Each structure stands twice: as structure tokens, then as C-alpha cells.
């Protein structure tokens, strides 16, 4: 009951009526079913943002952020990092509720690295079994509780690249467990994947169990980290590196959909340094990379049926946001959502 009151209040405060659901080919009012994999298959062009949840923002704050994203044309949000221990079902429920209020699709990501991306060192309890598995279970549970706005589930951010589970076979067994639990709950059609780099898949030995376990491919694609990166985001090497990685995914996807869940170019090198000394991280460079992707809408993304999501919304991931942490825009974000 409290839940519905909060939902009504927030909808009112944010000016979103329930009719905002279904305004686009997206999540309908919760309860009714929608074909998620068909929606993923139909995606191309810019789809939305990566959203860091480490700051544990409230439902109201997240709904505000999601509505600002939606004003810019975003249709999907994927989470990054984790709040608290990351195993708290009620926090993921807040995230999904915020998406539901605003009428935007959400991809909850179970953070499978035992520790945070930066600023933490491994302690004796920071193992996959102790830290990561409870997060996978929490995400599976919350989606079972409230599947409405959930487009898909990401089981790990670069879990192959970081070898989080110890082997591709072990990782695949958790994906399979999540699928079994979803199926028992009547959600056998919930798309599952991992969000990883081409290099993650390429460097992990026998990836067949994981490739067989996923419904589609979520791609982390960062020409910024390429060893041959030459300068700004708009360089022709950026595009060459981008499509080289996509071609790899096409070679293992067997016709299943591909969605670039994380791509971007930072405005500083503070959190993640590049691998090439020639790389320029700046606002112009970041905007140039966005322009590069946007300019390939007809010729590439529509042709290949591939959507892309920008990392990141704000500078929680230092330098990667389209907004500073104080909420002001680095530049006026625009990207085509169709062409
Ligand atoms: C590891 O977990 C055990 C059992 O919960 C606990 O007693 C111990 O204090 C933890 N160690 C650290 C370093 O957090
Ligand atoms: C699947 O459900 C079982 C039974 O409720 C539970 O013990 C297990 O932790 C769940 N696994 C995952 C990965 O959600
Ligand atoms: C970047 O590249 C695109 C296409 O290659 C071009 O349209 C655009 O003007 C370039 N420059 C900047 C600064 O973005
Ligand atoms: C927000 O932070 C940026 C970077 O530090 C700064 O340039 C900008 O003026 C700030 N905006 C406001 C409204 O404080």
C-alpha cells in the first residue's frame, strides 16, 4: 500500500502520469507482458545511459535523474557498481521503482567483481562466493518481485575480463541458475546476458558455456582504451576499433541481438587511464566521440540493428559523465534515437 502511495505521489511531483507508459515502444504498465527480446532486436542508435548506483541515491533522486535522461531521449538505463553490500533486494527495488515511475526501461546489473571498481583493496572476505553470488541472487529476486520495467538482466560487468567467477563454466552455471529461478516464477522470457569487452571473451579460454547461456550480447566497447588510439574521440582509429570489436561479437552471436551497453570517452584520465600515450581526454574529445557514433546512425547502427548506451550519466565515474557531479551539463547532450 505504501508503495502505491509513493508511486502516486512521485508521479504527481515529477509530472508523469501513468499514461507515460507505452508512450514509446517500451515497458508498459506493470502487470502486462511485453516481448523484451523483440524490443532488444529492434534497437538501433542511441538508447540511454549507464547509471552508477554506488552513491545509494533515494528513489526520488533516481526518478529525477531518470526523468532528466528521458527528457534527453533516453529509453533505457543500465546500472553500474553497487550500493552498500550490493546484496540488498530493497535497494534494487528502489532502482526498479524509480524506472517504473518515470516509464523508462531498466537493466539491473549484478556487480560480480567482489570489490568496488576503484578505491577498495581485496580483504579475505572479498571472494566471488561471499560477495558476488548474494548480489546475483538479490538481482534475480528483485526482478521476480517486480519485473515490469526490466528489459533484461546483466550478470556482471566484465565478469569474463576480470575472471570473477573463476571460470566461464562457473559463470555460466550462475546464469543458468538465474534462468531456472526466473522460469519457476513465470519469467522464462527475461533476457539474460553479461556486459563485457570483446577482450574479456577473447581472453577467457573456452567461452562456449557462457555464449550458450546468454540470450543476447551486451557489449562494453571502449576505443579510448585501445593500444592504437591516436588522439581525440572523433579519430578514425576510434571508429575502426569500435567496429573491430563489434565484428568479433557478430562472429560469436549466431544471429542473436547485440546491444552496446557501455561506450563513451572520458573528459579526464583520472579514474581509468588510457593505454596509448596519444589519447586526448577532454570535453571536446568526449563530445567528438559522441558525434562520431551519432554520425554513423543510418550507415551502421540502423543497418546492423545495434543500439548503444553512453557511459556515463554523471561523473560518479570520474570524467565519464555527460554531467559534472554538481549536476551541471558538460555539454548539451543530444544523440539521435532514430534515423
Ligand atoms: C570476514 O567474515 C567473517 C564472518 O562473517 C567475519 O567474522 C570477519 O570479521 C570478516 N573479516 C573481515 C576482514 O571483514
Ligand atoms: C535460486 O532459487 C533458490 C531457491 O529459492 C535459491 O536458493 C538460490 O539462491 C537462487 N539462485 C539464484 C542465482 O538466484
Ligand atoms: C566528428 O566526426 C563526424 C563524422 O565523422 C563529423 O560529422 C564531425 O563534424 C566531426 N567533428 C567533431 C568535432 O565532432
Ligand atoms: C560544476 O562543476 C564544474 C566543474 O568543476 C564547474 O565548471 C561548473 O561551473 C559547476 N557548476 C555549478 C553550477 O556549480
Automatic annotation (TrEMBL):
Subcellular location field: Cell membrane
A GO-annotated cellular component: plasma membrane
Main localisation: membrane
SUPFAM superfamilies: (Trans)glycosidases
The reaction(s) this protein catalyses: Hydrolysis of (1->3)-beta-D-glucosidic linkages in (1->3)-beta-D-glucans
Signal peptide: 1-22
Keywords assigned: Carbohydrate metabolism, Cell membrane, Cell wall biogenesis/degradation, Glycoprotein, Hydrolase, Membrane, Polysaccharide degradation, Signal
EC number: 3.2.1.39
InterPro entries: Beta-glucan_modifiers, GH
A molecular function (GO) term: glucan endo-1,3-beta-D-glucosidase activity
Top-level EC class as recorded in UniProt: hydrolase
GO BP of this protein: cell wall organization; polysaccharide catabolic process
Membrane topology: Single-pass type II membrane protein
Family: Belongs to the glycosyl hydrolase 17 family.
PANTHER family linked: GLUCAN 1,3-BETA-GLUCOSIDASE, GLUCAN ENDO-1,3-BETA-GLUCOSIDASE BTGC
Functional note: Glucanases play a role in cell expansion during growth, in cell-cell fusion during mating, and in spore release during sporulation. This enzyme may be involved in beta-glucan degradation. Active on laminarin and lichenan.
UniProt-recorded name of the protein: glucan endo-1,3-beta-D-glucosidase
Taxonomic path: Eukaryota, Fungi, Dikarya, Basidiomycota, Agaricomycotina
Amino acid at each position: 500500500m505504501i508503495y502505491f502511495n509513493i508511486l502516486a505521489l512521485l508521479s504527481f511531483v515529477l509530472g508523469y502520469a501513468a499514461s507515460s507508459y507505452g508512450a514509446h515502444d517500451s515497458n508498459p504498465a506493470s502487470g502486462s507482458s511485453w516481448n523484451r527480446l523483440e524490443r532488444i532486436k529492434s534497437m538501433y542508435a542511441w538508447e540511454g545511459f549507464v547509471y552508477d548506483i554506488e552513491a545509494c541515491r533515494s528513489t526520488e533522486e533516481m526518478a529525477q535523474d531518470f526523468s532528466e535522461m528521458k527528457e534527453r531521449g533516453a529509453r533505457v538505463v543500465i546500472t553500474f557498481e553497487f550500493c552498500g553490500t550490493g546484496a540488498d533486494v530493497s535497494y534494487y527495488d528502489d532502482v526498479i521503482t524509480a524506472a517504473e515511475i518515470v516509464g523508462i526501461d531498466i537493466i539491473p546489473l549484478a556487480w560480480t567483481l567482489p570489490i568496488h571498481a576503484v578505491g577498495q583493496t581485496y580483504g579475505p572476505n572479498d571472494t566471488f562466493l561471499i560477495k558476488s553470488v548474494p548480489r546475483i541472487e538479490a538481482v534475480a529476486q528483485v526482478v521476480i518481485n517486480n519485473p515490469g520495467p526490466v528489459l533484461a538482466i546483466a550478470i556482471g560487468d566484465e565478469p569474463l575480463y576480470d575472471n570473477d567467477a573463476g571460470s566461464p563454466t562457473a559463470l555460466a552455471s550462475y546464469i543458468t541458475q538465474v534462468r531456472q529461478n526466473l522460469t519457476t516464477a513465470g519469467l522464462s522470457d527475461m533476457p539474460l546476458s553479461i556486459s563485457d569487452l570483446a577482450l574479456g571473451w577473447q581472453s577467457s579460454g573456452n567461452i562456449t558455456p557462457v555464449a550458450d547461456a546468454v540470450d543476447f550480447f551486451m557489449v562494453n566497447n571502449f576505443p579510448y582504451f585501445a593500444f592504437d588510439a591516436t588522439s581525440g574521440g572523433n579519430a578514425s582509429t576510434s571508429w575502426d576499433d569500435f567496429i573491430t570489436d563489434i565484428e568479433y561479437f557478430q562472429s560469436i552471436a549466431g544471429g542473436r541481438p547485440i546491444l552496446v551497453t557501455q561506450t563513451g570517452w572520458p573528459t579526464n584520465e583520472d579514474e581509468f587511464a588510457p593505454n596509448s600515450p596519444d589519447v586526448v581526454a577532454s570535453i571536446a574529445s568526449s563530445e567528438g566521440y559522441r558525434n562520431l557514433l551519432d554520425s554513423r546512425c543510418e550507415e551502421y547502427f540502423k543497418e546492423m540493428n545495434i543500439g548503444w548506451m553512453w557511459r556515463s550519466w554523471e561523473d560518479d565515474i570520474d570524467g565519464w559523465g555527460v554531467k559534472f557531479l554538481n549536476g551541471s551539463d558538460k555539454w548539451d547532450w543530444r544523440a539521435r534515437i532514430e534515423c
